[in-house]
């Protein structure tokens, strides 16, 4: 196993907890998914009188701010069940 892979597996949780942005915010998929948000904001949450009176920019800023996202209450996700082989990968080795 390469040393870089081993470091990520051992210290991955510390890396994820120590970063300001979530891993999902660093990928290109996030940028592409913002297009869906933009269309939704334009269609449902903005004024249709003129282009200058729309508040889309403010909605995008609020929805992408990590501090505001942490304050937001999210619905609880259902617990997923994993295969026993997968659970063995997450087990901490006993020393």
Describe what this molecule looks like in 3D.
This protein is mostly helical. It has one domain. It is 59% helix and 0% strand. It contains five helices and no strands. The chain has helices at 3-18, 28-45, 56-64, 66-71, 84-90. The radius of gyration is 20 Å and the shape is elongated. The protein starts with a helix and ends in a 5-residue tail after the last helix. 0% of the residues are buried. The model has no long low-confidence stretch (mean pLDDT 76).
Topology (SSEs and partners):
Layout: H1 3-18, H2 28-45, H3 56-64, H4 66-71, H5 84-90
Short overview:
It contains 5 helices and no strands. With 95 residues, it is mainly alpha-helical.
Q: What fraction strand?
A: under 5%
- What's the story with the biggest beta sheet? none
Q: Spans with pLDDT under 50 lasting ≥5 residues?
A: none
Number of domains: 1
What value does the Rg take, in angstroms? Answer: 20 Å
What class, by secondary structure content? mainly alpha
Q: Give the number of DSSP strands.
A: 0
Task: Note the total helix count.
Answer: 5
State mean pLDDT (0 to 100 scale): 76
Question: Any idea what the shape is?
Answer: elongated
Percent range for helical residues? 55-70%
Q: Order of SSEs, N→C? A: HHHHH
How far is the first residue's CA from the last residue's CA? 20 Å
